[in-house]
Design goal:
The complex is a heterodimer of chains A (692) and B (589). By secondary structure, chain A is of the alpha/beta class. Among the domains of chain A are: 113 residues, Nucleotidyltransferase, domain 5, CATH 3.30.420; 137 residues, Rossmann fold, CATH 3.40.50; 113 residues, Dna Ligase, domain 1 (2-Layer Sandwich), CATH 3.30.1490; 71 residues, no CATH class. Chain A contains 18 helices and 33 strands. Chain A has a ten-stranded mixed β-sheet. In chain A, strands 13, 14, 15, 18, 21, 22, 29, 32 and 33 form a nine-stranded mixed β-sheet that branches. Chain A has a four-stranded parallel β-sheet with strand order 6-5-9-10, with helices on both faces. In chain A, strand 1 and strand 2 form a beta hairpin. The radius of gyration of chain A is 26 Å and the shape is globular. With 589 residues, chain B is an alpha+beta fold. Chain B folds into three domains: 220 residues, no CATH class; 165 residues, no CATH class; 43 residues, no CATH class. In chain B, the strands form five sheets. A seven-stranded antiparallel β-sheet of chain B has the order 2-1-5-4-3-6-7, with helices on both faces. Chain B has a five-stranded antiparallel β-sheet with strand order 14-15-20-17-18, with helices on one face. A four-stranded mixed β-sheet of chain B has the order 8-9-10-11. In chain B, a hairpin with a 2-residue loop joins strand 6 and strand 7. In chain B, helix 1 packs across helix 7, helix 6 packs across helix 7 and helix 8 runs parallel beside helix 10. The chains are: A alpha/beta (692), B alpha+beta (589). At the A-B interface, helix 3, strand 20, helix 12, helix 13 and helix 17 of A face helix 1, helix 6, helix 7, helix 8 and helix 9 of B.
Chain lengths: 692, 589
């Protein structure tokens, strides 16, 4: 198999090629082309092929991560969209949950009011009403009204239309019929229905997700078409697969219909890439720690399984979005995080970031405020002559100046201030990890911290120390983990149905019928992708809660025909999960099955990772020895520290810290009392405790 | 910034790390309570609080998810609890869990019950982890814990708990739990929520203790003292920027508009803010006398103080401008509050208080209006008040209950229109999804939309209220606790006043009856319905200065009519466009 993984970032497009027969992996980086990212994608693929004598026509798959949809939302730059909704409910997506994003603010904005995905003038209402519990038709759909609304929306120039009816998750017929009528009147329009995007209760969140799908539909559809054409134009026969936020990939046809599935797929690919690297070294309990200039993304894989975010916690740019996503906790902490003292004299680091422009003072791009990167320069951990493999030199004096100023304000010496900035940042990141582990009954000491991104390996060991995590892993290419994750992704489809069934009065017949139906739906999608049923792994889950609760926990449901016994096991699992998650269970309380879910996955071709050849040595890798500063046993001390070039390190040979390891995409810090080993799979393994 | 005056007790880095850890604990408590609780008022409406308190009753950190009026009063709960224990000669012991809700002992009102878990370190009391939550029912004389607007004294409002140990040294006090189960409607839900509160408080206490053990009590205390001082300095520096002087505003509440007794309606709430250097004195003299036999009085500690603290900080330390600032003891220090005894703002026991929410919003409105005289670009026109509707009924053997919290709306702001149909000021709850309500109780929501053609004009217009129409699918009852049926939210700086709220009962035959803003428990028949029409908030600035394109957008979005565009804004809209010449002429006239 010959595969490409192409991840489009803000600045660079990362391209990774893998040949599973030859056992080769090649990486390449080209500038991202902002106006039409598909140009950068093609340049990257073609250049890599040309330079390495690869025939583009022989490529089997191109796995692609795109931020087209995400950027359209973040920059509020989507299509003009319309909505057809139930009469009486025109403003569901405007009122939301009647809650403000911030408690203590008069001057705040509300994203869905200040930047509506569908303006009120383009929200049309039609007569129809469904009712729970079965989605019975209370008021028939007025088809003439739908037709009139479609004509009006067409005349007003909207490009896409979301059809959002109350209770459509129980009965999609009205939405489907309305969609058919709209397409008769306006065949070129992008038309989506809320029940097809996500068949789940909570109207504000579902309607918003559908509106978002309509808002980003046209640009994403155009982009995919352009890219596919460009691939064909270059003589490639490769199948295109697009990354989703659930950690799977989907076909261009699926993504063109449901572009909302790609939101936040970049960080998801990062987690996948991190997990893959961990797997190479046989680690299955991983905390992925992806730190860039502005934010840190934290994910947990437990025994190789990702946790999925709770539907109520997933947002983008402040809008709720109800699509399956890997649970990734993002906080505003990174290399560009700004340190400042507020008017009350309190010391803060972040969440504001200096970004890349003006950036840290050390970048000499006009940054005047001290950042985490500047603090790392002051302490000698970032080497001004060996940053990004020497491609960019750092302004040491600039960093000294800004960190010196805040030190003066705080009444500290400059090194104390610098280490303080890093300590506060690390502590914020450790708290974020704690919220995803300790607070959910997971002991981080049983995990490895997989540190990547430009700044992850700089901070990984000290963050691990704060949490008692014994080991940090830095993958071979910490800057392109998302591209790598693409190559590790699977074809994956989900189906969901809201149930509201209670444990003491289960309708097993309905459950079994729904599961069969959902599995048929999923199999049909795989068939459309030419995947044989035998290659598909199907898993069932329930979102369950104690009766009366509003938040669900996910538990497994047995395959095949479900009976009272198999459900009893599910309920027992629920009690245990509740105890683990919250520290308490209510064993007497009935359990409500809110949603049932089916996930189908089909494996993608496996990536073959070449083993590192053991040609390096410590002497060959040593670049220099210089002073760096660390706090050990409560005092800040200066250490003679070896700086190594990563590519020349010996394999399987443990080296004691302190040490700094240099490579193109990142700098790894090994503090005193830590040691490290380059393993044959390309990973650096940092181990807590004094090396022998 | 000079070093002087900001030098802390410990280094600023350790201080910050400990503060971050405290905040993280409070968030964990809130997260767990919200997700574990059983009734929609806590988990959907988020009408709960969680906070860590130190041994001197000072707030260290609060859960971000909680509604401000729940976490804010927690230090007062602790003080009230301690006073009660002292009077009885009792002490707190490790393993105790204490229940408290006395509105004359620090609580904001009876339904908001606190569960307090003490933190002991080396045998000494080192602090408290506390959750509060609005319970669906605490055994008042009519069902539910909202809309109890005819309670004649504190005794009629439901069970009062004055520092009751539900666990004593780790042992469950079964007798208390039996009594709760007997006297509370919906005991499974309410007691389940109480258990969830205890579990969340215990987690908080455990984490707080781990933090103290890790850093030492002395270091943690020093870090928190520094945190209070820094917060205090932050607010003082904001107050110091304001010119010294006296700034007053008065708002009015309906009270009981259908009551023959004039002392029960049209009641002023007067706020006078005196600024002197970096101090603020808030004086409520001029506020109406208490209504001794109706529950619209506001506990001085628990409601009045919180309403003032939280409105002042929302204006002077607005988080959209200043970033997130943890609410703690330090932010209350520069503010002194006075309210004469025997007024709505400082009632005398046993005057009832259960419906204090809406008067508290008007008090907050008055604070913001008074501040508009000094910081005109940091305030908004008066907000539309909230409140709630309580619906209940019997279906077979099952008693059901649904709390519908009303939204309000925000007044127009400098360079921004007001927020539409949101909870306001010291409250920030959430509505319940329609698809959740109809799946669980016999109600049908017929309509939930914004009002049209009544938005308050202004250079930046007032926020728009909503209309929510609910129908009973089987016989039941309703009670209402709201405000603002008579008094429209005031506009600012030439902006128009808003539009009052209305409440309509639609009988099965279609006839309509206007209801006042307070309706005690009342039966409703199958097919009858209630329409809650919520206030539109006040506008900001001269409507003739509004961008004509923004006026056009409001016409296209059907918030206002083309006629209103012309009569209120002097903007001529024709064929979906602004007629610039006609607009200039109209505005020049």
């Amino acid at each position: 198999m010959k595969l490409f993984g192409v991840d489009v970032g803000g600045t660079f497009t990362d391209v990774m090629y893998s040949d599973s027969v030859a056992g080769t992996v090649i990486i390449h980086k080209v500038p991202t082309t902002g106006d039409d990212p598909s140009r950068g994608v093609m340049t990257g693929i073609i250049e890599l092929c040309e330079r390495n004598g690869i025939d583009p026509a022989q490529i089997d798959y191109v796995f692609h991560g795109t931020t087209i949809a995400t950027n359209a939302i973040l920059e509020y730059r989507g299509a003009e969209a319309g909505m057809i909704t139930t009469k009486g409910f025109r403003d569901i997506i405007h009122i939301g949950r009647h809650q403000r994003p911030q408690h203590y603010s008069i001057m705040q904005e509300i994203p869905w009011q200040n930047r509506p995905l569908v303006k009120r003038r383009f929200r049309k209402v039609v007569t129809e009403r469904l009712a729970p519990p079965n989605g019975d038709v209370l008021v028939a759909l007025d088809e003439d009204e739908v037709r009139v609304a479609a004509r009006e929306l067409k005349a007003s120039g909207v490009q896409s239309i979301a059809i959002c009816f109350l209770f459509s998750y129980l009965n999609p017929d009205h939405e489907a019929r309305a969609r058919a009528i709209v397409l008769e009147e306006y065949p070129e329009a992008f038309v989506t229905t809320s029940s097809s995007v996500v068949s789940q209760f909570r109207e504000f969140e579902r309607f918003t997700t559908a509106a978002m799908n309509a808002y980003i539909g046209p640009p994403v559809r155009n982009y995919i078409r352009q890219l596919d054409n460009a691939l064909r134009g270059a003589g490639m026969k490769a199948e295109l697969r697009i990354m989703r936020s659930n950690g799977g990939v989907a076909t261009p046809a699926t993504i063109s219909e449901f572009p909302v599935l790609t939101l936040l797929s970049g960080p998801a690919a990062g987690v996948l890439g991190g997990a893959l690297c961990g797997q190479l070294s046989d680690r299955r309990n991983l905390i992925t720690f992806d730190v860039g200039g502005t934010s840190a993304d934290i994910g947990v894989t437990n025994e190789g399984r990702f946790s999925e975010a709770s539907a109520r916690d997933t947002t983008i740019a402040g809008y709720p979005v109800l699509v399956p996503m890997i649970d990734i906790h993002t906080i505003g902490a990174g290399g560009g995080s700004v340190a400042f003292v507020d008017a009350g004299g309190a010391f803060h680091v972040g969440p504001r970031s200096a970004g890349s422009v003006p950036g840290p003072a050390a970048y000499s791009r006009g940054g005047q405020e001290p950042t985490v990167t500047d603090a790392n320069v002051v302490l000698g951990r970032l080497d001004k002559d060996n940053f990004l493999g020497g491609e960019m030199s750092l302004d040491g004096a600039g960093a000294q100046k800004v960190v010196g100023e805040i030190a003066e304000t705080l009444g500290l010496d400059i090194d104390e201030a610098a280490v303080g900035i890093i300590t506060i940042l690390n502590s914020n990141m450790a708290n974020a990890i704690r919220s995803r582990t300790v607070q959910k009954g997971i002991d981080p000491r049983d995990f490895s911290l997989m540190a990547f991104g430009g700044a992850g390996p700089l901070h990984g060991a000290e963050v691990a120390d704060m949490l008692g995590i014994p080991e940090v892993i830095v993958p071979a290419y910490p800057g392109i983990t998302s591209a790598l994750g693409l190559l590790a992704s699977e074809l994956k489809y989900d189906s969901i149905r809201t149930q509201f069934q209670v444990s003491d009065a289960l309708n097993l017949e309905r459950l079994n019928a729904d599961f069969l139906q959902m599995e048929e739906d999923i199999n049909r999608q795989f068939e459309a992708d030419s995947v044989a049923a035998a290659d598909v792994t199907v898993m069932r889950f329930a979102d369950a809660r104690y009766i009366g609760q509003g938040y669900e926990l996910r538990v497994d449901i047995a395959g095949g025909s479900i009976d009272a016994d198999s459900m009893e096991r599910t309920f027992e699992q629920f009690h245990r999960a509740h105890e683990a998650e919250y520290g308490h269970a209510f064993p007497q309380s009935p359990i409500e099955i809110v949603n049932v879910r089916v996930t189908g996955t089909a494996p993608s071709p496996q990536l073959e990772w070449p083993k590192t050849k053991g040609e390096g040595s410590r002497d060959k890798a040593l670049v220099k020895t210089a002073k760096t500063k660390f706090r050990v046993d409560g005092t800040l001390q200066s250490f003679d520290t070896a700086f190594y070039r990563r590519a020349d390190l010996p394999v399987d040979s443990s080296i004691a810290g302190p040490a700094i390891i240099l490579q193109l995409d990142t700098t790894t810090v090994v503090p005193p009392n830590w040691s490290f080993t380059a393993d044959p799979h390309g990973n650096l393994i940092l181990t807590a405790g004094v090396a022998s | 910034m000079s070093k002087h005056g900001t030098q802390g007790r410990i280094d600023p880095i350790t201080a910050k790390v400990i503060q971050g850890a405290l905040e993280n604990i409070a968030i964990e408590m809130g997260y767990k309570l919200m997700r574990m609780s059983h009734s929609s008022i806590i988990r959907e409406s988020e009408d709960f609080g969680a906070a860590l308190i130190d041994a001197d009753c000072r707030q260290l950190a609060e859960a971000k998810q909680s509604t401000p009026l729940q976490s804010g009063p927690i230090p007062g709960y602790i003080r009230g609890m301690l006073r009660m224990l002292e009077e009885r000669g009792e002490t707190i012991k490790p393993g105790d869990v204490i229940m408290h809700n006395d509105p004359y002992g620090g609580a904001t009102h009876g339904p908001d019950v606190a569960f307090i878990v003490p933190v002991f370190h080396e045998g000494m009391l080192a602090g408290y982890a506390v959750t509060t939550a609005h319970h669906l029912d605490i055994g008042a004389h009519t069902p539910g814990s909202g809309g109890i607007v005819d309670a004649i004294d504190c005794y009629a409002e439901g069970l009062r708990f004055q520092a009751i140990k539900v666990y004593e040294e780790g042992r469950r006090n079964q007798q208390v739990w039996h009594m709760l189960r007997t006297n509370i409607r919906l005991p499974d839900l309410v007691l389940g929520d109480m258990e969830a509160q205890i579990a969340a408080s215990r987690i908080g206490a455990q984490r707080h203790l781990e933090l103290i053990e890790r850093y030492g009590l002395e270091t943690v205390t020093a870090a928190t003292e520094d945190m209070f001082d820094a917060s205090e300095r932050l607010l003082r520096s904001a107050i110091a920027k304001l010119p010294d002087g006296e700034y007053s505003a008065t708002t009015y509440i309906d009270g009981f508009l259908d009551d023959p007794d004039p002392a029960r309606r049209d009641l002023p709430i007067k706020v006078t803010i005196r600024i002197s250097g970096d101090e603020m004195h808030v004086d409520l003299t001029g506020t109406a006398p208490q209504v001794s036999d109706r529950p619209i009085n506001m506990p001085f500690k628990g409601t009045v103080d919180c309403a003032i603290w939280l409105s002042v900080r929302s204006v002077l330390l607005d988080s959209a401008v200043h970033g997130e600032i943890q609410q703690n003891e330090g932010l209350t220090r520069p503010i002194r509050i006075f309210a004469p005894e025997g007024t709505l703002a400082n009632p005398i026991f046993p005057a009832p208080v259960i419906a204090r929410f809406c008067p508290g919003i008007e008090l907050s409105n008055a604070v913001v209006q008074a501040l508009s005289q000094v910081v005109p670009r940091q305030v908004c026109g008066s907000c539309g008040n909230g409140g709630g509707l309580l619906l209940a009924g019997q279906q077979g053997e099952n008693f059901w209950l649904q709390v519908e919290l009303f939204s309000g709306s925000y007044g127009g702001r400098w360079q921004m229109d007001g927020m539409d149909s949101v909870d306001v000021l010291y409250a920030n709850t959430r509505n319940n999804p329609i698809e959740d309500i109809e799946s669980h109780v016999p109600l049908r929501i017929e309509r939930y939309e914004l009002r049209e053609d009544v938005a308050a004009a202004g250079r930046w217009r007032g926020g728009i209220g909503s209309i929510r129409h609910l129908r009973f699918l089987s016989p039941g009852s309703a009670s209402v606790e709201s405000e603002g049926h008579k008094y429209a939210p005031k506009g600012l700086f030439g902006g128009a006043d808003g539009t009052p709220s209305q409440l309509i009962r639609v009988k099965a035959d279609g006839s309509e009856i206007q209801l006042p803003s307070k309706v005690p428990h009342h039966p409703f028949g199958e097919g009858e319905s209630i329409i809650a029409i919520r206030a539109c908030a006040g506008g900001y600035g001269n409507p003739h200065e509004r961008d004509p394109q923004a006026v056009l957008a409001d016409v296209l979005d059907e918030y206002i009519t083309a006629e209103q565009a012309f009569s209120q804004y002097g903007v001529k809209v024709a064929d979906g466009k602004v007629d610039l010449a006609a607009t200039s002429a109209a505005r020049a006239a």
